[in-house]
Amino acid sequence: MTLTALDLKPVPQGREIYSDPQARKLLETLIRSPRTVLAPEILPTDDIHYPLLDSVLGTASDAEDLLSRMVSSGVLVSDMVDQTIQCPECGSREISTRYKCAKCYSINIARSFLYEHLKCGKVAGDEVFRKGEQLICPKCQTVLNNFGIEYRAVGAWYKCNDCGESFNVPAHSHFCRPNRHQFNPERVRLYPILQYRLNPNNLAEIRKEVLLYSEALTMLEDLGFTLFAPHDLVGRSGEPQTFDIVAKSKGRWGGDKTIAVDVINSAKPLSAEMVRSFASKVKETRPSESYLVAVPGLDDEAKTTAQKLRVNFVEGPSIREAATVLLNLGSFKGHRA
């Protein structure tokens, strides 16, 4: 079955992102307050997460990939707020910095301070001044209590406990804790930490696209359907398959009726591969009815494929027009709550 809205118009680049259920859900939240920033938080494990994104979508392993795609599509912009170190071997960001002896490169080093007793002028290391819990000048035996008044720190140095070398500036390297890789600063990889916000230049289009999709859902709800968007249907193999919209209602003669819909909003006509992917999900889950909503439409090969695979689809230059075509089908138009 093919129903088409005429006079197709060009679709802007990046429109595909509006077909991603997670992206749509995030955009619906952000457009309520367009100046909201998705700020990063670095966990004790050095993992980066975004609390607002987690509250909207739940913790997702592919969150950074989603945000990257949304930037590439022009709906979000990113700003670098920090940088962290990445292991050049495995990419881990769980990195420690190790200070080493400048001579033998042992990590068995200790740091000492130089103290000066201001009254008698004695300068020595803090270990020389320290006697138990007190600081006592080794020259005049005065007990020192007031830092900055009776004594002061005039410098610091390091000493290697293995070779005995003393030095002011230690060598250093980095250590990957998960996989125990060691590497010098010359090999370090820098990983930018980004925050994200709505692209102010595309705010009008973002608001239009997201609200139009919400409007299509409202139209279905007004017809009396119970909607789940997005929603998983469990297939014959036991594996869930995700559809953009699943509409459920009681059939005319009793029993539940399930209508599965995918909305693909693209910058160019959909390919045959997209049709085959949809057909595969339908075959696996066997809903009562299924429809592929294609914006702006299918290319010639995709239409031929849809006919062969008996895929029901509707086309339109926008979500609103394609949704209107969909809702004029008998399955929807004749429905009553």
Largest sheet: 6 strands, mixed
Please state roughly what percent of the residues sit in beta strands, choosing from under 5%, 5-15%, 15-25%, 25-35%, 35-45% or over 45%: 25-35%
**Could you say how many structural domains there are in total?**
2
CATH level 3 topology of the largest domain: Trna Endonuclease, Chain: A, domain 1
Q: Roughly how many Å apart are the termini?
A: 25 Å
> Which strand order spans the largest sheet, edge to edge or round the barrel?
1-23-22-21-20-17
Question: Helicity level, as a percent range?
Answer: 25-40%
What are the segments in which pLDDT stays under 50 over at least 5 consecutive residues? 1-13
Describe the structure.
This protein is α+β, with helices and mostly antiparallel strands. 26% of the residues lie in helices and 33% in strands. The protein is built from 9 helices and 23 strands. The chain has helices at 21-30, 51-57, 63-72, 126-129, 203-222, 272-285, 300-309, 319-327, 330-333; strands spanning 2-4, 37-38, 41-42, 48-49, 76-86, 95-100, 109-117, 123-125, 130-131, 134-136, 143-144, 151-160, 166-167, 171-176, 182-183, 189-198, 226-228, 231-234, 240-243, 245-250, 256-265, 289-295, 313-315. The chain has a 6-stranded mixed beta sheet, sandwiched between helices. It has a 4-stranded antiparallel beta sheet with strand order 8-7-12-13. The chain is elongated. The protein starts with a strand and ends with a helix. Mean pLDDT is 84; it is low at 1-13.
